[in-house]
Amino acid sequence: MFVRRDLSDRVPTPEGEMHYVKQGSGYPLVMLHPLGTSTWAWHSVIDSLSQHYTCYAFDMLGHGESDKPSRHFNIPDYANALDHACQILNIHRGHYVGNSVGAILAAEMAASFPQSAFLEKCENWDEWDKPAPPFQLLGDTWYVGTCGISALLVIGGGEHILIDSGVEDAAPLILANIRALGIDPRDVGYLLMSHEHFDHVGAHAALVEATGAEVIASPIAAQVLSSGEASADDPQADIHPAMTPVNVDRIVSDGEVLNLGGKEFTAHLTPGHTPGAMSWTWNACSLPWQPPVCRRVAYVDSLSPVSADDYRFTDHPAVVADFRRSIAKVATLPCDLLATPHPSSSGMLDRMKEGGLLDGAACADYAKAIEKRLNDRLAEEAE
Q: Which end of the chain has a smaller Cβ tally under 10 Å, C or N?
C-alpha cells in the first residue's frame, strides 16, 4: 500500500464508483495502472512525483477498490468513466501517465482532453470567428472550427479531408488548428461543404490557396461558390453578403460515394435551408494505438427554416417539399455521432457536458426537432 495518502476516496461515474488516491500539490498528474492491478502499481514513485504534482491515482472500474462494471468494458468505456471522474474532481488540465493498458488509456484521454478546453472557452451560439482549440470528435475525425462554426478534419491516408471553412476571417484560425494537430495544411487534399452561405464556405478561397485542396460541392452550391453570389432561390438571398469566388473541381450527386484519402464519404443532398445544401456520412475509425472500432459519423446540414424578413415559406411550396424530403432523409441516416455546421444547432456543447456525443438516435431526434421548427414557422405564417 502507499506510504502516505493525502486523500483516498471514491467518485461516481455512470458505470459505478471509482476509487482514487490523491497526493501532493501542483499541476495535476493522472496515473493509470496496468490491467489486472490497482493504484498499488504506483506505490514506488508516487511519493517522489507528489513533490512536484497533484497526483491522482485511479483504480479502473473492475480493479482495486472501484466498482465492477455490469457489462463488458473496452478502452473508450474506461476513458468515458475516467473523464466523468475527472470532471467531478475539477481536473480540466493535466498530464496523463500510464503503464501497459494504462498507457493506452492515457493516450485515449490525451486525445479527448481538448474537449474540456473547448467547453471552457466556448459557449452555445458563440461568435463565428472566436478561436477554439481543436479536439477529437471520434477516431480519425477532429473538430478544427471556431467556437460558433464547425469545420471538421478527417485524417486520411496521405491526403486529409476538410469539411466547411467558416467565415473568411476564420481561415487562419482553422489553419492554426490543423497545424496544432501536427498536420501540414498542404496535406489537406479535399475541401467539402455543408451549405453555400458565407459563414460556412466564406473561407474556401483562402483555404484553397493555403492547401491546394480540391473543392467538392453540389450542383447548385457550385454555382454560388464559383460566382460568390447567393442563389436567387435562397430564402436568405437578400441578407447574405458576397464571398470571394472559388473554383469547384468536382460536382457530386445525391447518394454518390467518394473515395477520398482512402476513406469513403457518402454525399446526401439535403436542400431546404439553402438550395444546394449537403450532408455527409462516413466511418470514423480508431487511431492506430486504439482497439479497432469504426462508427458512423453524420455531418448534417442546418436545415433550419430561416429566411429574410419578407420571405414566406408558404409562398414557396417547392422549398417546403425540399425541407420535408431532407428531414425524412436525415431521420434515417446511419448515425452514431451527429455534428452540424452550427455546433449548437444539434446541442453539441450540452451533449459533451452531459457525457458524450455518441448517440445512435441523434439524427432521428435532430430531424424531429427540425420538423417541429418548420411546422411552427408555417403555422406562424398562416396566422
A: C
